[in-house]
């Protein structure tokens, strides 16, 4: 707001409440605007563009995702789109580690036990609430001598997660990335050396499912990745393995995952996103699974990241108005 | 059990249920034993020793803590005590990171929101559920350019936590350790270089309270450290700071911490231990604080660590019976 308010040449129309604006308010107030700054709750579709006028030059979203924006319509009207990658990388990487630890250590039931006042009645036993250990433990030679993490998607955020996992003693990293991207043997060698791992290897879904102790989903949503984690994938996973989704809910078949947890094909799952969110009630099959811990899409919810996202979104919009280069422009090809 | 059952020269008496044995069963069945293997729920006091006979040579506890064992009585009767340090170091270090992330990222309320079916009604807003970011974010230059972690106690577990935090980009480390231990400037230089930090420094409680973004308690319990975190310490802490206790509940004055959270002297707290546990009900002042997330003392609850602890405890007991050196003997001086 400080940046926007310093611009005397602009009239700023602001939805004044700290909750989502009603659609009617939005459609009414974007009329005649040159730039619109929104978040991922707003559908930027034909209705949206029709409600604006010929003055519109740019739509700037406060998000790294852009599933809510119709790229073809934006392209056909020559509207430039800004988004906010990078600034949320570390916040989401932190959330991914939180989910790994929450899921592997029975975090959901543990938090609930104390919160509901049941700790005094809890019957302690040596293996109560135990789960697979995220970190490799040189001081405790009683488990596997390796830890393998498998990444579905291996962009900025996944690599930031790997940097954190190195401190936990992870030994092997498998990843699969966009089939259209270039071969990355340089990245493999660099990351293996940098993090002192035994292996960093481009792999496929089959090997990732079979070999990983921890599978981490950090790929984009959309049709290409829809239900990429399905019954077939889950049946191949280790019984002691953990699945984490910090990307988009659409990548995971929720019914298949609920079945996998109920029948113990895998140990547990940690999700920051669920297909159909936020309409995920207490009767959702994944909410009912004790070994599934779910956060309400807080991946980027740190003060630093959210300030960074809003400032970037403002700078994106102003760059278009000033005829400059946007800090982060979405390709519409 | 495999190790014990392979010994034809020993009669093994086993409490057969996966919950704590009643005290009467324990006192009845330790009569005449040469070694007793117990966990930290059992008081090893005059009553305990009186119930055994002159044959007793060793008590082996499946724990790193030994507050439940009367060292003076054991020493006066020449009973050797075994315990299980080291094997749980990495499990507790992982739990510490879980608590840091849970507390700073509003993990308790987030888990509860989804679990209770309230996600669909949740009013998303840009700063909902945001908290201070654990990791330093080079990609997002909108927060502090440093992260300072302060350790109360700086033994094996604290140093294992520091190794993990290095992957999150922590820059400064302050610590205070047992005043009776030797100066450790060698450790300071080694750790600073190893983890590429800007500073690792022996400090005092006052500086740790004032300078730390994250204060982590990993010191032993007992009279020396009772309520070392009190109102005076908490009042000096940063408003955005996080307090984590993964050691013993007695180190923190619960009423002072509840007041600090209610009046927002600090941002949040994550506790694996609470004074008076497990008698911590829903009306406990810390359970009632939304910014306090509590786990039911699961620090070492990984399969690897608990197997390691039980195997070490068995080896400790057998070493005494076989006249050898115990893998981990408690000093009774």
TL;DR?
Two copies of one chain form a homodimer. In chain A, about 35% of the residues lie in helices and about 10% in strands. The first copy, chain A, is α/β, with parallel strands linked by helices.
Give the SSE layout.
The structure is a homodimer.
Chain A: H1 2-5, H2 23-29, E1 35-38, H3 46-51, E2 58-61, H4 71-76, E3 80-82, H5 89-104, H6 107-115, E4 148-152, H7 156-166, E5 172-176, H8 185-194, E6 199-202, H9 205-211, E7 214-217, H10 231-236, E8 242-245, H11 254-262, E9 268-271, E10 292-294, H12 303-321
Parallel strand pairs in A: 1-2, 2-3, 4-5, 4-7, 5-6, 7-8, 8-9, 9-10
Provide tags for this entry:
homodimer; alpha/beta; Rossmann fold; three-stranded parallel β-sheet; 10 strands
State the end-to-end distance of chain A: 32 Å
The percentage helix of chain A is: 25-40%
Low-confidence stretches of chain A: none
* Largest interface: pair, residues per side: A-B, 89 and 88 residues
Fraction in beta strands of chain A: 5-15%
Can you tell me the CATH superfamily of the largest domain in chain A?
Answer: NAD(P)-binding Rossmann-like Domain
Q: What is the chain-wise order of helices and strands of chain A?
A: HHEHEHEHHEHEHEHEHEHEEH
Count of discrete alpha- or pi-helical segments spanning 4 or more residues of chain A: 12
Q: Per the principal axes of the C-alpha atoms, what is the gross shape of chain A? A: globular
* CATH architectural designation of the largest domain in chain A: 3-Layer(aba) Sandwich
The rounded Rg of chain A comes to: 22 Å
Tell me the quaternary state: homodimer
Number of strands of chain A: 10
Report mean pLDDT of chain A, rounded to a whole number: 95
Strand order of the largest sheet of chain A: 6-5-4-7-8-9-10
Described by strand count, sense and barrel closure, the largest sheet of chain A is: 7 strands, parallel
Q: CATH topology of the largest domain in chain A, what is it called?
A: Rossmann fold
């Amino acid at each position: 707001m400080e940046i926007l308010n310093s611009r005397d040449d602009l009239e700023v129309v602001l939805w004044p409440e700290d909750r989502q604006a009603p659609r009617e308010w939005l459609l009414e107030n974007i009329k005649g605007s040159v730039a619109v700054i929104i978040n991922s709750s707003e559908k930027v579709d034909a209705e949206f563009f029709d409600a604006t006028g010929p003055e519109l030059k740019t739509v700037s979203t406060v998000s790294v995702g852009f599933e809510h924006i119709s790229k073809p319509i934006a392209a056909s009207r020559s509207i430039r789109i800004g988004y906010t990658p990078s600034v949320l990388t570390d916040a989401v990487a932190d959330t991914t580690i939180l989910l790994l630890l929450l899921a592997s250590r029975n975090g959901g039931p543990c938090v609930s036990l104390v919160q509901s006042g049941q700790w005094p009645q809890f019957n302690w036993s040596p293996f109560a609430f135990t789960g697979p250990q995220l970190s490799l433990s040189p001081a405790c030679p009683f488990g596997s001598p390796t830890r393998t993490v498998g990444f579905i998607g291996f962009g900025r955020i996944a690599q930031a997660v790997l940097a954190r996992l190195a401190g936990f003693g992870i030994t092997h990293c498998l990843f699969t990335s966009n089939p259209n991207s270039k071969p990355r043997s340089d990245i493999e060698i660099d990351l293996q050396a940098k993090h002192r791992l035994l292996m960093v290897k481009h792999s496929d879904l089959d090997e990732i499912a079979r070999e990983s102790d921890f599978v981490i989903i950090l790929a984009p949503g959309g049709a290409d990745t829809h239900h990429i984690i399905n019954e077939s994938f889950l049946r191949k996973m280790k019984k002691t393995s953990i699945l984490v989704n910090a990307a988009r809910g659409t990548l995971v078949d929720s019914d298949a995952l609920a079945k996998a947890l109920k029948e113990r094909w895998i140990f547990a799952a940690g999700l920051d996103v669920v297909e159909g969110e936020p309409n995920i009630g207490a009767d959702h099959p994944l909410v009912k699974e004790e070994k599934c811990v779910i956060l309400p899409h807080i991946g980027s919810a740190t003060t630093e990241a959210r300030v960074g996202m809003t400032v970037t979104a403002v700078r994106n919009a102003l760059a278009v108005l000033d005829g400059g280069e946007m800090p982060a422009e979405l390709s519409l090809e």
